[in-house]
Design brief:
The chain is built from 18 helices and 17 strands. By secondary structure, the chain is an alpha/beta fold. The protein is elongated and about 80 Å long.
Length: 535
């Protein structure tokens, strides 16, 4: 800690160091980011993970500040960062507030003093709290030539337990992403409401809900969050809780997932909310955008938040939208889904961590073959025992008692349950081969938990397994599913709701398949089939 504070305070003790020389070449924000990142590295991976000390790069922080500018460019606006870490938002927000005050006619000395009184940070780690306050004071001195005491700006506390006084015009930040687990799970139930998932409740969900309670009516929230909450079925309750309190103003997807945070790969977005109240009537329309690695934003259009916690649209560059640029989540007309073709969608039953003793590398009486995600090859071909490691656990001995309803027979389509934006396709599917299905026709086969199984419900499905796999692997389906896939996990529920063309309109597999398929989606004005269509 002393090393980082010495850098921040410009002390002579490090004046001749190489690090000092390197810092001098950086912009003020990059310098502060480098110092706070050094602290995160020095505390070690275990402590860093427990604190969720993954600091926001200046470019993303700047994009966030620009998005919430209307909320702090108000006379006397108050701002809170409830998880201020190394000051990634605290310092540049204070700078922007000071510039606004000066541009509005306030003298520099008075502007700096006023901002220090109107901005507040909370940080659970005392070292980071001290560092943030120091960086804030240093920034005001360097940028405006004004020395202001900042030691009271950041409170060392757990924001979820702190007694936060007053209400704010803006709450900004990047809250921790870890789960509550058993630690304090009961205590957070009152905060979580419908968003509660017991020990699996995400801390960032609690920060969002607490922050909305700290806002003035009409106040704004700007948080950098994982994308999973946007459309994931498990976050239905969180979406309901948010809409009960606020309007969604904007969701911007950040296009960089690797090297964004130290030691972490994460899909993130910028969420901007406005609390209901005076001057903010409930509205269901929000803006969509993309933020690149440099912080530049590309506007994509608008979307609508559906009722009852249904999925929100994820910002994607393509998808069905009106001439006015409004993306549609659900179809206005009946649309086919996978079930319409004569299939059902379910998740593989076998969980290796819990059933390790029932997995084997060789066949034997009563053992069933296990299909793993690695059996879906990148080219869409099915290959049993396709992974070197998973081949060692490719046979499963079912329990001696219990239903075997999870066993599949005949040809099906299997889909990898995890994906990310770096892959060529969002969906990766393979049709189980005729040879494999015939070889195991009597006893069947099972799938591991990271596999989605799409199996026939009728003797002669309207679409063959090969054609269904080709459809799911197509570029247009990948693009459309990406609009409702906020996380790396492929939701079986959302996959089952994906609006698809009628079976009779699908082209035959061939060189022109992808091109011919595009026209089949022309009549679908939404990504998901409306819930009533599934009934």
């Amino acid at each position: 800690m002393s090393i980082c504070l010495a850098f921040a305070r410009d002390e002579e003790i490090v004046a001749e160091s190489r690090a000092r020389d390197a810092l001098a070449l950086l912009s003020n924000d990059m310098r502060d980011y480098a110092i706070s990142s050094a602290y995160a590295l020095l505390i070690g991976p275990a402590r860093r993970k427990s604190l969720s000390a993954y600091f926001t790069p200046p470019s993303l922080a700047a994009a966030t500040i620009e998005a919430v500018r209307p909320f702090f460019e108000r006379p006397g606006a108050t701002v809170l960062d409830p998880a201020c870490g190394g000051g990634s938002f605290l310092v540049p927000t204070a700078r922007a507030m000071t510039l606004y005050a000066v541009d509005s006619g306030t003298k520099i000395e008075r502007a700096c003093a006023g901002v220090v009184k109107r901005i507040k940070g909370i940080e659970i780690d005392g070292g980071l709290a001290s560092l943030s306050a120091t960086l804030l004071g240093d920034a005001l001195k360097q940028d405006f030539g004004v020395a202001v005491a900042t030691d009271k700006v950041v409170e060392t506390a757990n924001a979820l337990e702190a007694n936060v006084k007053g209400r704010f015009d803006l709450i900004i930040g990047n809250p921790p992403y870890s789960k509550v687990w058993a630690r304090g799970a009961a205590a957070i139930s009152a905060i979580a409401g419908k968003a509660g998932l017991g020990g699996h409740t995400n801390l960032y969900a609690l920060f969002v809900l607490r922050a909305l309670g700290w806002l003035k009516p009409g106040g704004g929230l700007g948080f950098v969050l994982p994308t999973s909450f946007i459309a994931g079925p498990y976050f239905k309750g969180l979406r309901e809780e948010i809409l009960a309190r606020a309007n969604v103003v904007r969701i911007d997807m950040h296009q960089q997932r690797e090297h964004l945070f130290i030691d972490a790969i994460q899909d993130v977005c910028l969420l901007v909310l406005q609390r209901h109240g005076a001057g903010c009537a409930p509205s269901d329309r929000y803006e969509l955008g993309l933020i690149d690695a440099d912080g530049a934003r590309t506007a994509l259009g608008t979307a609508t938040t559906p009722p009852d916690g249904d999925a929100w649209l994820v910002p994607v560059a393509s998808g069905p939208k009106s001439e006015a640029g409004h993306f549609a989540l659900t179809t206005s007309k009946p649309a086919d889904v996978i079930a319409s073709y004569g299939y059902r969608v379910r998740v593989g039953k076998v969980v290796p961590k819990r059933e390790r003793k029932q997995l084997f590398s060789e066949p034997a009486p009563n053992r069933l073959p296990v299909l793993w995600a690695s059996d879906v090859r990148a080219d869409g071909v099915f290959k049993f025992q396709g992974g070197t490691r998973t081949a060692l656990s490719s046979w499963y001995l079912p329990p001696s008692s219990g239903s075997l309803g999870y066993v599949s027979r005949g040809r099906s389509v299997i889909v990898q349950r995890t994906a990310n934006r770096d892959q060529k396709r969002r969906l990766n599917a393979s049709a189980v081969s005729e040879a494999f299905a015939s070889a195991h026709a009597e006893h069947g086969y099972v799938a591991e938990n990271h596999v989605i199984v799409i199996e026939p419900t009728i003797p002669e499905p309207l679409v063959s397994p090969d054609l269904l796999a080709a459809l799911l692997n197509s570029a247009i389906v990948s693009e459309r599913f990406s609009a409702v896939a906020g996380s790396f996990s492929v939701s079986a529920k959302l996959l089952a709701r994906l609006a698809l063309p009628p079976a009779r309109s699908l082209p035959a597999i061939g060189p022109a398949f992808e091109e011919d398929l595009v026209a089949c989606f022309d009549g679908l004005d939404g990504i998901l089939a409306a819930p009533a269509v599934l009934a």
